[in-house]
């Protein structure tokens, strides 16, 4: 008789425990449903172009009660930085505004200062603790923005304060952007601070390939002098293929001076001369170059630079050689 009595007395407790667990599960499911609904609503407003309402929802429901909310549509700091109003910017910072406040797209005031080439504002934000490696939802960093604007001063101040000269593989690349737009000073600063001149972005190729596609002769020359591989382009397309296709004789000549293979073949088994426009100056130049032997001095220079290695090319000026020979080895 005792066993049935115990079983009956335990049933209410088990039922209450099950009810508690069901309540917790229901509360969790409700909160999950609310979060998903808010995310969908925010996305809907973004798609419809109403970013202000999306930012309000994010700020109200995700950052309630915080002193400095990390989300805002456009803060006063963003406006001051984008317009280069240094005094207003410093006043806002002194009043306690967060220098790392984000828009709905994760744009910081430092992004705005750099894309506007406002170096004084960028410096003030960095001194106040702005994140120099902050990334937007599209992967843009302040350094990328500085290279887009061609701001050498902003590029240098960012690098001096810890900005990474190299981006992740699938993120927008500062050195590609600076090369694409022909901003030689930015390319020079990036290389000085350790950017890899041979970094290969799958959909863009190397920075040298980008320079050839955009016909940026001086940027291509700088990259080659710093040891960029003359054969590394985009997939099987070499930089010389790009120069030939764009009918840029000056870039094609530069590449051949640095040892480009005139017989390299792309994925379609075409040589550079095959992709050059018919009867173009570049096609004629390549046809003549095919039958001309290379100069011994040029071959020796390429051999010496190859033996020295890319990482030690910067030491060439220290070699105990006549100035004229050192300049020759450095393509100057």
TrEMBL record:
Spans traversing the lipid bilayer: 20-46
ANK repeat spans: 72-104, 105-137, 138-163, 170-199, 235-267
Gene3D superfamilies assigned: Ankyrin repeat-containing domain, SOCS box
Pathway annotation: Protein modification; protein ubiquitination
GO biological process: intracellular signal transduction; positive regulation of protein catabolic process; protein ubiquitination
Keywords of the record: ANK repeat, Membrane, Repeat, Transmembrane, Transmembrane helix, Ubl conjugation pathway
Pfam families named among the record's database cross-references: Ank_2, SOCS_box
Keyword Chloroplast: no
Sequence ranges assigned to domain SOCS box in this UniProt record: 287-332
InterPro entries: Ankyrin-SOCS_box_domain, Ankyrin_rpt, Ankyrin_rpt-contain_sf, SOCS_box, SOCS_box-like_dom_sf
Family: Belongs to the ankyrin SOCS box (ASB) family.
UniProt name for this protein: Ankyrin repeat and SOCS box containing 5a
Highest classification ranks of the organism: Eukaryota, Metazoa, Chordata, Craniata, Vertebrata
